[in-house]
Specification:
four-stranded mixed β-sheet, Immunoglobulin-like, 1 helix, 17 strands, five-stranded antiparallel β-sheet
Length: about 260
């Protein structure tokens, strides 16, 4: 290893204590004070609260184009079925008010309060059809995964709103594997079922969705190159204009 000796301005000595004149002492004092104040400010940030993240997933066939607000802040504007908006930051709240309004103005179509949007978490306002509601549609709030999938894995959550198709099986078929030889990732996923994330090995896959128990693909997605860490939410709805395939999908990026 090479040793490099630095010769100071003090002649041939290798080290020396520099003399501090009065002006230099003043500068050093101001710099030290500024550093101390900076450190104190970094350690004590008064009133700072980590934000929450929110987006909207619209799965309703019967709702008009809508705007969605949380605590008076517009988070989605003029959206319709199949929309999965990007996340937006909001102040955290333990009792948030959510309003769904028609883009044509007027009183709220849907209204709810006392929703939790915790700091450092992310959520989806999920608009879906509900025959039990007088409007024919309603919303719920889903807590989304905000941590990347484990190394070498991907995490997917599937929301089935294919009312006419009914329960479905979901496959993530690796490259070179036939659907007849594949094992479904999820079996008999019901309409309006309680969603949860499923983790699997990340690789090149093709998403295939079939009516439960049927091996003929109902929907075959383009190949997906997964490298690990991805977290996704997939919305499944009935195809409204054609019967082949009978379902369509929309995918939102939760993480990565």
């Amino acid at each position: 290893m090479r040793t490099i000796w630095l010769r100071s301005i003090c002649g041939d000595r290798l080290s020396c204590a520099p003399r501090l004149t009065a002006p230099l002492l003043a500068v050093a004092t101001v710099a030290a004070l500024a550093t101390a104040l900076f450190i104190t400010a970094c350690e004590n940030v008064s009133g700072y609260t980590q934000p929450t993240l929110a987006r909207v997933i619209d799965a309703s066939y019967v709702a008009p184009a809508v705007n969605v607000s949380i605590n008076g802040t517009l988070i989605a504007a003029n959206i319709g079925q199949g929309a999965i908006t990007a996340y937006g930051p909001l102040p955290a709240s333990n009792s948030a008010i959510i309003e769904v309004n028609a883009t044509t103005a007027g009183p709220p179509l849907l209204y709810g309060n006392d929703y939790l949007f915790a700091a450092g978490n992310q959520y989806s306002v999920f608009l879906m059809d509900n025959a039990a509601d007088s409007a024919g549609y309603a919303f719920t709030v889903l807590q989304d995964q905000q941590i990347a999938a484990p190394t070498g894995h991907s995490s997917y959550r599937f929301l089935n709103q294919a009312i006419n198709t009914g329960a479905v099986d979901v496959y993530m078929v690796p490259g070179g594997v036939k659907i007849a030889d594949a094992v479904p990732l999820i079996t008999a996923l019901p309409v309006n079922g309680t969603p949860s994330y499923v983790s699997f090995i990340a690789q090149n896959v093709t998403m295939v969705i079939t009516p439960t128990g049927v091996t003929t693909p109902a929907y075959t997605f383009a190949p997906i190159a997964l490298t690990g860490g991805e977290v996704r939410t997939v919305l499944i709805v009935d195809t409204q204009l054609t019967t082949n395939p009978p379902v369509a999908v929309f995918t939102g990026n939760d993480v990565n």
